[in-house]
Amino acid sequence: MESFLPKKNGLYLSLVLGNVNVTLLNKHSKFAYKDEYEKFKLVLTVLLLVFSFTCRFVFSYRALDALFNFLLVWYYCTLTIRESILISNGSRIKGWWVFHHYVFCFLSGVMLTWPEGILYQMFRNQFLTYCLYQSFVQFLQYYYQSGCLYRLRALGESHNMDLTVEGFQSWMWRGLTFLLPFLFFGHFWQLYNGLTLFRMAQLPECKEWQVFMCGCSYLVLFMGNFSTTLGVVYHKYIHNQDKSKSL
Length: 247
What we know:
- By secondary structure, this protein is mostly helical.
- Helix content is 74%, strand content 0%.
- The protein has helices at residues 11-17, 27-58, 62-88, 95-113, 118-154, 180-201, 209-246.
């Protein structure tokens, strides 16, 4: 009964929506909202994949890059709002996988304000190639995680409000460990982006504050993503070791 009672919004939802009650009143409504959230992520992931490919290999216009970064800002802002509503309705999303969307939103906003110049062009292709790879991996994650969640729900081993995430969680050991190399490669690409930007920030012609801020954002993303994913793998390994000893 408690899960269907109105709840006070958290700080973020209060700032964005005010005191609007976001508690959905039945299981069907909650599942429908979760399903719509998943479809939204899929459609935007495909759109970002096509958009990043177009900017990287077809057109090279700063205005088009700005539109792409604006789309990223809007996408991640929308995700944070929807995820906050889902958490209020019982979704069990790990803290980092929510927080890293705020970091991505900040990073995309900084990229949006980065003016045209030599340093922007130096990093542009690397950034767009990374975005292309990230969208591809997110599509893989959605496709395989959604199928895995469906099977686990049918077996009664998953919560109805569990979501697909841009990372790795313990329930994904059932057939999704092949995603780990893709994830770790993306994490180290974030580290590479951060180190590249820090080197660019030391150049005498670097006058833009965006270079250093983007470097810090990528470093935060790498540390958070890598440590969280590694923690899941480590705890699962320890759990399996304890289980084998007990047998």
